[in-house]
Amino acid sequence: TPRQTFFKEEVRDDDLTLREETIAPDNFTRISEMDHLNMSRDDGPPAKEEAIREGSTTDGIECGRAKFAFQGENPDELNLKEGEVIRILEKRQGDWWANSFSKMTKYRSTRGDVRNYSFEEAVLSGLASDRGLFVPEEDSFPSLPPNALTEWASLSYQDLAVEILSLFIDAKEIPRRDLEVLVKKAYTFGDANYRHKDVAPLVKVKDNLHVLELFHGPTFAFKDIALQFLGHLFEYFLERKNKHSDSVHQVTVVGATSGDTGSSAIYGLRNKKNVEVFILYPNGRVSDIQEQQMTSVLDDSVHNLAVQYNLGAVNSINWARILAQIVYYFYAYFRLPTHEKVAFSVPTGNFGDILAGFYAKRLGLPLDKLIVATNDNDILHRFFSSGKYHRTHVNHTTSPSMDICVSSNFERYLFALGGDDAVVLKDWMTKFESTGKLTVQGSLLKKAQADMSWTQEVQATIKQYHVHHDYLFDPHTAIGVAAADHYLESESPDATVVVLATAHYGKFLPTVLDALKEDGGEVKQHPILKALETLPRRSHLIENSVVSVKAFVESHVQRRDAKEGGGFLSGLPQSLLLQGSLVVAAAGLVAFYALKK
Q1: How far is CA 53 from the centre of its chain?
Q2: In the prediction, which pLDDT does 24 show?
Q3: Residue 29 pLDDT > 50, yes or no?
Q4: Which member of 91, 103, 223, 272 is catalytic?
Q5: Under 8 Å CB-to-CB from 160, ≥6 apart: which residues?
C-alpha cells in the first residue's frame, strides 16, 4: 500500500538518519517497509515488525497499535491515531541497525481547553486562550534516546542544544539544518553576543560546589540564553509565514519585568523583522544598570514604559524559554567530575529556571535534588514546606529580579504534580485566582517535597566567597550559594551541587560593594556595563492602568502600520491585562498578530 506521508529524512552522518511518517487509514498495514527501514544489516540479528490495518481483528489487537519487535523481550509500542506522525531514529551498531520510535510532540494547555497545538502555535501564542500555559501532550513527552548520556557528554553547547531541542521540535516544523542555524545564531561567540566560547562555563568554587555561569550573554543575565533563541524563533516563523502569504504577518510583543527579563527580551528581539516590543517596568524599582540597558536601546521597534507605582510581572510563560533552559542542566551535568548525588541550587522567583531542571529530570537526567533558593518573597518556600501557596505583597529586596509575589510558571509544575490532569489544575487555579490561596496536602505535598528542597536564607555570602575563594556573586546567585551551603551542611554533605549564576555581579555593583565594604579591594565595573552610563536613553512614564498601556501600544502600532501602508492589530486581551493591579505577561513571551493587508 502506498504511504501517505510528508516523509522527512535527514542524514546526520553516515551512520545515523531520522525519518518521520504520517499515519493514514491505509497505512496501518505497514508503518514502514522492512527494506526501507533497513532494519537487518548483513549478518546481524534479524528484526521483526508487526503492524495491523485499521479495523482488522485478525490478531486480536486493537486498531491503531503498532508493535515493533527487535532483539530482546520488550518491544517499543505506540498508540497511533490517524494523522499522527511517528519518528524513526536509526543508528548503526556494528553490522546492524538499532531503531527507536516516538510520536511528534504536540502541545496542550494546562487548563485543558486547548489541545493538539504545534510547537509554532505554542510559541507564537505564548499564553493559551483559556489562560493556561502550554505543555507537551501527556502521551508525547519525549524521552532521551538510548545512550544519550554517554554520546552527548562531549558535545559543544550548540550541538547539545540541537539534540535536546529536536526532541521537542519536530523536523516537520523546523528541519534539523534550520534548527542548527537558529542555535548557531543564538549562541555565537563574540562581543555582540556571547563573551565566552562555552556559552555557559562551569566553574569549580570549592570541592563539592560548582557555579554554572549563565551571564555571558549580551545583557549579562541568564535570561539571554532563552530570549536570544526566542527572538530568532519569532523571526524564523514570521519569515516563513510571509514567504507564502499575500498578507504580512507581524508580531507585537508586550511584556513586564521586575529586573533582567526586559533588557534580555529587548536584546533578543531587537532588529528582528516584523517584531515590535513594548516593555513595562516599575518606575524606580529596577537597578540603574537594568534601566540603562533597556532605555539605551533607541530602535524604532523598541518601547520602554516606566509604570508609576508597583507592577506585577507574570514572567517566563513561553514554552520556548523553558525549553532553551533545559539545555544547560545537561551541559553542566556532563562537565562535573562526578555524577553521584548531583543537585542544582536555583535562585527562584517565577519558577521558570528551576522548572527547566524539573523537565530535564523528567527527560532522564539523573539529578538527585533541585534546591529552590528564595529571598524574602517566599511564596515557594511556604509551598514546599507547608503546602500553602498564598499570594502576598511584594517585599523589595537587594535581589529585585526575585521580587515577585506569584510565580507564574509554577502552574506547569502544579500540572505535573496533579498527574497532568487539567481538571485538577483548573480547579486549583480557579480557587487561587478568586481567593489568592491554594493548598496541597497529604501524598501530593510529600511528592512535591521529594522533587524539591528549599531554603529561605537570604544572608549575603558575597563577602565570604570573595575573601576565601576569590569569587564574586551577584545578590541573586549569592542566595543560591547560601541555599547550596545549607543543603550540603544539613541534608546531604556528600552531594555535588551546581549553583546557577543568574547575573554578573556588575549589574548590582552597589549591593556587592556594600556587602564587601572595606574588603572590596579593586572591584571594578565591567567596561561594557560602565559604558552604559554615557549612552542616551529613552522611556515613557505611564500611569498604572490597563487603559493607558493599551492605548499606548495600539497608538504606536497604528502609527507603524500607517507608515508601512496600512494594517491592523487585534486588541490586547483582558486575560493578559488584568483589571486591578496591572499584570502583563512577561517580555518576549506573548505575541499579538497584526496582518498588514
Answers
A1: 40
A2: 44
A3: no
A4: 223
A5: 152, 327, 330, 331, 334
For 95, the domain range is 1-103
CATH of residue 195: 3.40.50.1100
CB neighbour class for 532 (10 Å; exposed up to 12, middle 13-18, buried from 19): middle
Q: Which residues pair with 9 in a beta bridge?
A: 19
- pLDDT score of 224 more than 50: yes
CB 131 within 8 A of CB 430: no
Which element (helix H / strand E) includes 136?
strand 134-136
pLDDT of residue 217: 94
> Is 507 one of the annotated active-site residues of the chain?
no
Mean pLDDT of the chain: 76
C-alpha cell at 470: 576569590
Lowest model confidence (mean pLDDT) among 321-325, 486-490, 569-573: 569-573
Report yes or no on 423 lying in a domain: yes
Q: Are residues 48 and 196 in the same domain?
A: no
User: Is pLDDT larger for residue 92 or for residue 342?
Assistant: 342
Strand order in the sheet with 540-542: 540-542, 302-307, 275-282, 248-256, 591-596, 568-569
**Rounded Cα gap, residues 34 and 287, in angstroms:** 62
* 528, 557, 588 - which closes a domain: 528
**pTM for this predicted structure:** 0.76
Q: Is residue 436 part of a domain?
A: yes
DSSP state, 26? G
What nine digits make up the cell of 449? 517535597
CA–CA distance from 50 to each of 10, 32, 98, 100, 261 (Å)?
A: 25, 10, 16, 15, 51
